[in-house]
């Protein structure tokens, strides 16, 4: 009995220690929208539909107002999110076509691998778009299981009106669009379904959410990481029967209301198992809206241009974070933050375990609990195409370099699922914008701020020395090769 009494304090201490470890290692749910713009939520000004779940998360958690992706396009943006690196550092560019033989290199270290190495169960649900060949799929990048589409939902042999592609159509080149299921150790994924119609597309948000809820329930007793990458609001958009006609804005509003409801189901599942307090939920988007699709896409919230451009409408996206155990009061944070910083933040939460590569992300952990915390990130590079340095940022200042870009201005958008035409414009000489006073990037003040220009040119030189710049014919010292399949092998 005496030995037992002596052991009791030790057992109590051990139990307290385990409880503390569990408290300090939150579950993580990372929700990544597709082509959802800055202005597409109620809290950022959306009209004619409501997003009460996301608005409540924002009003009770943290909302970043200056959250930026390093490239405003699908594959590049996703690679940055999952690795904490500039996409061009890893040879990633653009949006990969099906069977391109390219993908995120297997030796890149992902957020899923980081968390798996720390004992987390990991799953990816939704749009992958970092290489659709088996060697590049999520289960070879740290995820224990995968359910979703291998690339964008418009990469299918179907016309804009939902009918099968005609022989002379550019969409006829696409293979069938597969909904995949895969577990770690599988060589080839299972095809659950071929997505053939707009009704099939309409079911995706619900299917992804069903899988997410199942994952939370099945892993409620141990730390988990869920990466949920919705196919919506990338065209073609479609809402399920329960949400058709529910908004005043039409199909896009219906889709947003369904997404909001779906996230409500995830939050409800967390509450059901008493997991909400210590679950870090991050909600954001891969880039701004695809504006030439008119009423079938969203709003950049007044920022300039949209998807596919280095102007703010392309790269600035909503970001909402909920973690009640850490964020005790509502915070609206106006500091510069990048999607690359999510990796660094979670790494710090986990004690900064050693990673194979130095990352470009900068942790914003201290900003989660302190509304007055100073900015961690001061600068950012804006690359596009293969390796074009189109702009650099320092604090509230943005310097834009001469380049040609795809524009949505001075042309009419399309409607009802059909795209309008693009315009193409040229930045003829360097332009400087003060994003504090001019977030829409309309007033070039380069002549008024020579010292600011000098500082930004120094940052550009650092970028070119590190990563190169095709516009200046510089290679850069620290770029790694993209994953590439040659004769059936990844290289």
Structure explained in plain terms:
With 491 residues, this protein is an alpha/beta fold. It has two domains: 352 residues, Alkaline Phosphatase, subunit A; 106 residues, Arylsulfatase, C-terminal domain (2-Layer Sandwich). The longest helix has 23 residues. The chain starts with a helix and ends with a strand.
Number of strands: 19
The CATH architecture category of the largest domain equals 3-Layer(aba) Sandwich
What's the structural domain tally? 2
Question: Major sheet: size, sense and barrel closure?
Answer: 10 strands, mixed
Across the major sheet, the strand order is: 7-6-5-4-8-1-9-10-2-11
Share of helix among residues? 25-40%
Summarize the topology.
Layout: H1 2-24, E1 27-33, H2 52-60, E2 62-68, H3 74-83, E3 102-103, H4 111-117, E4 121-126, E5 145-148, E6 177-183, E7 190-195, H5 198-202, H6 204-218, E8 224-229, H7 251-272, E9 279-285, H8 312-315, E10 319-322, E11 331-338, H9 341-349, H10 365-369, E12 379-384, E13 388-394, E14 397-400, E15 403-407, E16 423-427, E17 431-434, H11 450-467, E18 483-486, E19 489-490
Parallel strand pairs: 1-8, 1-9, 2-11, 4-5, 4-8
Antiparallel strand pairs: 2-10, 3-18, 5-6, 6-7, 9-10, 12-13, 13-14, 14-17, 15-16, 18-19
Helix pairs in contact: 6-7
